[in-house]
Hints:
By secondary structure, the chain is α/β, with parallel strands linked by helices. It contains 14 helices and 13 strands. It has one domain (3-325): Divalent-metal-dependent TIM barrel enzymes (TIM Barrel, Alpha-Beta Barrel). Strands 1-2-6-7-8-9-10-13 form an eight-stranded parallel β-barrel. Strands 3-4-5 form a three-stranded antiparallel β-sheet. The protein has a two-stranded antiparallel sheet with strand order 11-12. The two termini are 38 Å apart.
Amino acid sequence: MTNSRRQFIKNAGMGILGAYVGSSFLSACSNPSTSTSNGPFANIGLQIYSLRDLLIKDPKLTLETVAKIGYSHIETFGVDVANNSFWGLKIPELKKYLSDINLKTHSGHYDMSKYLDRNSNDKESIERYIEIAKELGQTYIVAPVTPMHDINNLQPDDYKYAAEQLNKAGELAQKAGLTIGYHNHFWEFREFANGTKGLDILLAFTDPNLVTFELDVYWIAKSGLSAQSYFNKYPGRFAMWHIKDMSKTYTEPIVGKDYDKLPLDSIFGKIKYTEVGTGAINYPQLLDSEKESGLKLAFVEQDDIYIPNKFESIQKSYEYVQKYLAK
């Protein structure tokens, strides 16, 4: 997709926030699920990063619309520690507003790229993240990504160091009644000389009592692997799933010798997302692995939304989850 096309879509999405998201759209939204189930799909969450552009424009209207569609909770991202805020909302204000619209938050993504980097002496404050998560009523503090500055050259020792750091953070979080988690992308599935993968190192060297994992089902599929294989190999380690779908015309794996040293920009050209239930991933089949994986929370996420109305996109995903995955 060209930059001009991306910008057009971005501008279109921003422009409709006030004009299209009015009473007509909100009245057409699904009512929050009346299912008596307490399962993670009946009570699906949204990784609010999916709507990051709209959050900047109007965070309260964006969150209200998410709640009106029927999502019961959100996963946060992008805390501004210096200003004690998310998306321009002070944390006490955000907490109150979420309560007002009956939208919870159980998990958040918190930048730990320096904390997990064995070559960095400037570490993020895990203690401050714990305070913020505690104030919001969250249970999970998730590291969303590895150190990004040199991902093509990550070595087993980098992952072992990251695992040690996650254990340390897990000890701190446990004292506060919280849990540290880790969210994968595709490069954790690249193989080292002995066949070991980065995610396997993180799983092997972290304490299951201190660290859980948030499996991104899209990224493991885009790496040419199955989520079920990891649930079988590491039962009980995946308390969270990211539910996003893969365009049926972009199913080629992006892990292997032809890709592992390419610049990210060239790899991202092989990636396209779509609304849950309209793509290549068989989510109903994954339901058989829910208990084995240890699943507690599930989140819809779509890194890039291509239709102009981004709320319509997340509503399509929500409705599919409720119809085919909720029990």
